[in-house]
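Predict structure. Chain length: 155.
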Amino acid sequence: MLDVLPAEALEGRYAPRTRSVAAQFAHMHSVRVYHLEAHGRAFLADLRSYPRGAEPSRKEIRAAHLASAEAIAAFLGDCVAKGAVPGWHGPPATYLAYFVAHEAHHRGLAMAALRLSGFKAPDELKWGLWSGWNAERAPSPALSPRSPRKPRPKR
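Prediction complete.
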Protein backbone atom coordinates (compact mmCIF):
# COMPACT_ATOMS: atom_id res chain seq x y z
CA MET A 1 0.00 0.00 0.00
CA LEU A 2 2.80 2.41 0.89
CA ASP A 3 4.56 2.02 -2.44
CA VAL A 4 1.53 3.17 -4.44
CA LEU A 5 0.67 6.29 -2.43
CA PRO A 6 2.07 9.74 -3.18
CA ALA A 7 3.59 11.49 -0.16
CA GLU A 8 0.65 13.89 0.22
CA ALA A 9 -1.78 10.97 0.49
CA LEU A 10 -0.13 9.95 3.79
CA GLU A 11 -1.60 13.13 5.30
CA GLY A 12 -5.19 12.18 4.40
CA ARG A 13 -7.81 11.79 7.14
CA TYR A 14 -11.36 10.48 7.07
CA ALA A 15 -12.58 13.16 9.51
CA PRO A 16 -11.08 16.00 11.52
CA ARG A 17 -9.24 14.92 14.67
CA THR A 18 -8.70 11.37 13.39
CA ARG A 19 -5.49 9.57 12.51
CA SER A 20 -3.91 10.34 9.16
CA VAL A 21 -2.96 7.51 6.82
CA ALA A 22 0.64 7.75 8.10
CA ALA A 23 -0.60 7.69 11.70
CA GLN A 24 -2.67 4.56 10.96
CA PHE A 25 0.53 2.79 9.91
CA ALA A 26 2.40 4.17 12.93
CA HIS A 27 -0.36 2.83 15.19
CA MET A 28 -0.19 -0.65 13.63
CA HIS A 29 3.55 -0.77 14.29
CA SER A 30 3.11 0.54 17.83
CA VAL A 31 0.52 -2.13 18.66
CA ARG A 32 2.98 -4.80 17.55
CA VAL A 33 5.59 -3.26 19.85
CA TYR A 34 3.12 -3.02 22.76
CA HIS A 35 2.34 -6.72 22.39
CA LEU A 36 6.01 -7.64 22.35
CA GLU A 37 6.55 -5.52 25.46
CA ALA A 38 3.69 -7.34 27.19
CA HIS A 39 4.16 -10.89 25.95
CA GLY A 40 7.52 -11.34 24.21
CA ARG A 41 10.21 -9.03 25.57
CA ALA A 42 12.95 -11.36 24.33
CA PHE A 43 11.92 -10.52 20.76
CA LEU A 44 11.64 -6.76 21.26
CA ALA A 45 15.29 -5.94 20.48
CA ASP A 46 15.54 -2.18 19.88
CA LEU A 47 12.00 -1.69 18.58
CA ARG A 48 10.25 1.43 19.85
CA SER A 49 6.66 2.49 19.44
CA TYR A 50 5.69 5.82 17.95
CA PRO A 51 4.27 8.48 20.25
CA ARG A 52 0.53 9.09 19.97
CA GLY A 53 -0.30 11.14 16.87
CA ALA A 54 3.07 10.55 15.18
CA GLU A 55 3.06 10.86 11.39
CA PRO A 56 6.29 9.23 10.25
CA SER A 57 7.61 9.38 6.70
CA ARG A 58 7.10 6.56 4.21
CA LYS A 59 10.72 5.45 4.73
CA GLU A 60 10.30 5.37 8.52
CA ILE A 61 7.00 3.50 8.27
CA ARG A 62 8.45 0.89 5.92
CA ALA A 63 11.51 0.28 8.13
CA ALA A 64 9.40 0.09 11.30
CA HIS A 65 6.87 -2.31 9.75
CA LEU A 66 9.54 -4.62 8.39
CA ALA A 67 11.33 -4.76 11.75
CA SER A 68 8.19 -5.26 13.83
CA ALA A 69 6.82 -7.85 11.38
CA GLU A 70 10.03 -9.87 11.69
CA ALA A 71 9.90 -9.64 15.49
CA ILE A 72 6.23 -10.68 15.65
CA ALA A 73 6.89 -13.56 13.22
CA ALA A 74 9.79 -14.81 15.37
CA PHE A 75 7.71 -14.46 18.53
CA LEU A 76 4.76 -16.32 16.98
CA GLY A 77 7.10 -19.07 15.77
CA ASP A 78 8.36 -19.47 19.33
CA CYS A 79 4.79 -19.50 20.66
CA VAL A 80 3.76 -22.17 18.16
CA ALA A 81 6.74 -24.31 19.21
CA LYS A 82 5.73 -23.93 22.86
CA GLY A 83 2.01 -24.30 22.12
CA ALA A 84 0.97 -21.10 23.92
CA VAL A 85 1.32 -17.32 23.94
CA PRO A 86 2.36 -16.02 27.37
CA GLY A 87 -0.44 -13.96 28.89
CA TRP A 88 -2.85 -14.67 26.03
CA HIS A 89 -6.01 -16.71 26.49
CA GLY A 90 -6.13 -18.95 23.48
CA PRO A 91 -3.79 -20.78 21.13
CA PRO A 92 -1.17 -19.00 19.00
CA ALA A 93 -3.48 -19.08 15.96
CA THR A 94 -5.92 -16.76 17.74
CA TYR A 95 -3.07 -14.37 18.51
CA LEU A 96 -2.17 -14.26 14.82
CA ALA A 97 -5.85 -13.76 13.98
CA TYR A 98 -5.92 -10.76 16.33
CA PHE A 99 -3.09 -9.09 14.38
CA VAL A 100 -4.69 -9.87 11.02
CA ALA A 101 -8.02 -8.40 12.15
CA HIS A 102 -6.43 -5.35 13.78
CA GLU A 103 -4.30 -4.51 10.77
CA ALA A 104 -7.15 -5.15 8.32
CA HIS A 105 -9.29 -2.73 10.34
CA HIS A 106 -6.65 0.01 10.16
CA ARG A 107 -6.01 -0.66 6.45
CA GLY A 108 -9.74 -0.07 5.97
CA LEU A 109 -9.54 3.19 7.93
CA ALA A 110 -6.56 4.24 5.82
CA MET A 111 -8.48 3.46 2.62
CA ALA A 112 -11.46 5.48 3.90
CA ALA A 113 -9.13 8.36 4.76
CA LEU A 114 -7.68 8.29 1.24
CA ARG A 115 -11.10 8.30 -0.40
CA LEU A 116 -12.61 10.98 1.85
CA SER A 117 -9.57 13.24 1.52
CA GLY A 118 -9.92 13.23 -2.27
CA PHE A 119 -7.25 10.70 -3.23
CA LYS A 120 -8.40 8.24 -5.88
CA ALA A 121 -6.78 4.94 -5.02
CA PRO A 122 -5.73 2.86 -8.03
CA ASP A 123 -7.48 -0.48 -8.54
CA GLU A 124 -4.21 -2.25 -7.73
CA LEU A 125 -4.39 -0.81 -4.22
CA LYS A 126 -8.09 -1.52 -3.73
CA TRP A 127 -8.29 -5.02 -5.18
CA GLY A 128 -4.72 -6.28 -5.53
CA LEU A 129 -4.77 -7.76 -2.04
CA TRP A 130 -7.50 -10.15 -3.12
CA SER A 131 -5.88 -11.34 -6.34
CA GLY A 132 -2.97 -13.12 -4.67
CA TRP A 133 0.28 -12.14 -3.05
CA ASN A 134 2.51 -13.38 -5.83
CA ALA A 135 2.53 -11.58 -9.17
CA GLU A 136 3.26 -14.91 -10.88
CA ARG A 137 -0.03 -16.40 -9.66
CA ALA A 138 -3.26 -16.25 -11.58
CA PRO A 139 -5.90 -13.84 -10.32
CA SER A 140 -8.13 -15.04 -7.55
CA PRO A 141 -11.23 -16.95 -8.65
CA ALA A 142 -13.22 -14.41 -6.64
CA LEU A 143 -12.30 -11.79 -9.25
CA SER A 144 -12.88 -13.89 -12.36
CA PRO A 145 -16.14 -13.65 -14.23
CA ARG A 146 -18.68 -16.15 -13.00
CA SER A 147 -20.89 -18.24 -15.18
CA PRO A 148 -24.60 -17.62 -14.67
CA ARG A 149 -26.22 -19.74 -11.99
CA LYS A 150 -28.52 -22.50 -13.02
CA PRO A 151 -32.00 -22.11 -11.60
CA ARG A 152 -32.79 -24.36 -8.66
CA PRO A 153 -35.41 -27.02 -9.26
CA LYS A 154 -38.76 -26.13 -7.74
CA ARG A 155 -40.00 -28.30 -4.90
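Summary: The chain has four helices and no strands.
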